[in-house]
TrEMBL record:
One of its GO terms (cellular component) is ATP-binding cassette (ABC) transporter complex. This is Transport permease protein. It comes from the Bacteria. Belongs to the ABC-2 integral membrane protein family. Its main location: membrane. It comes from Streptomyces aurantiacus. Pfam families: ABC2_membrane. Keywords: Antibiotic resistance, Cell membrane, Membrane, Transmembrane, Transmembrane helix, Transport. It is a multi-pass membrane protein.
Length: 253
């Protein structure tokens, strides 16, 4: 049964990758957008409030975490479009493992997210950002970032099925912006009003950003947040993954 499910999921993943070849512009936009954010905050509006040391070393890990919350609309649109075109209904009428369509879509998104981290790392290196924690710490940081993305992805998939229509995705996507910017990605909580700093510190995205800075060896980075950077995404997955699967199974055939 496991082999059957993996085979179906891989088939759906290849379907999504084929869409990349037919619509490369969408993939390129997804890669360019975080680069534009990094350049904008680095050169135009980045003040580095409350940051000790090099702001670029502080900003780049924060932008890594921030972009793990952004770009979900591509997956959300794909899910809603499949729903409205009857594609998912046709797949569910076939002898296919439950959820293979969603797993394939999520796998393609994770591949694009990993590619986005590679591109953003190259741009950050060009800006002067450096990793001081060694290769093992670097890979651990990348793992934490992708874990956060995986959790955010299943929240997006669930919201897409709840929204039901492509035109509703934009409205739902707007909710991501407050979550993203209510974090320590671009400024420290100490530079904010006390009540706002408390909200920022509890943001799962902030926990990942702080842990990643620690692993990268950023000067003055807080330590001891790696456990929270693992626990928060796992908690989100424990809630939203089963909800998304249950919602998918309840869709009318």
């Amino acid at each position: 049964m496991t082999t059957y499910a993996l085979s179906d999921s891989w088939t759906m993943t290849r379907r999504e990758l084929a869409h990349w070849a037919r619509q490369p512009a969408q993939v390129l936009v997804g890669l360019v957008f975080p680069v534009m954010l990094l350049l904008m905050f680095s050169y135009l509006i980045g003040g580095g409030r409350g940051v000790d040391g090099d702001y670029v070393d502080f900003l780049v890990p924060g932008m890594f975490a921030l972009t793990m919350a952004f770009g979900l609309e591509g997956t959300m649109l794909a899910v809603t479009q499949d729903l409205n075109k009857g594609v998912i209904d046709r797949f569910r009428s076939m002898p296919m493992a439950d959820g293979a369509v969603l797993v394939g879509r999520s796998a393609a998104d994770m591949l694009q997210s990993a590619l986005g981290l590679v591109v953003l790392s190259g741009v950050g290196y060009a800006l002067g950002w450096r990793v001081h924690g060694g290769f093992g710490a670097f890979m651990g940081a990348m793992g934490l970032l992708l874990l956060l993305r995986f959790a955010m992805l299943w929240i997006g998939i669930l919201l897409a099925m709840v929204a039901g229509k492509p035109e509703m995705v934009q409205a739902v996507q707007i909710l991501v912006w407050p979550v993203g910017f209510l974090s320590n990605a671009i400024a420290t909580p100490e530079s904010m009003p006390a009540w706002l700093g408390t909200v920022v510190e509890w943001n799962p995205l902030s926990q990942t950003a702080t842990a990643v800075r620690d692993l990268f060896g950023v000067a003055g980075a807080e330590t001891g947040h790696i456990w929270a950077a693992v626990a928060w995404p796992l908690a989100l997955l424990a809630v939203f993954f089963p909800l998304a699967v249950r919602r998918f199974r309840r869709l009318s055939v």
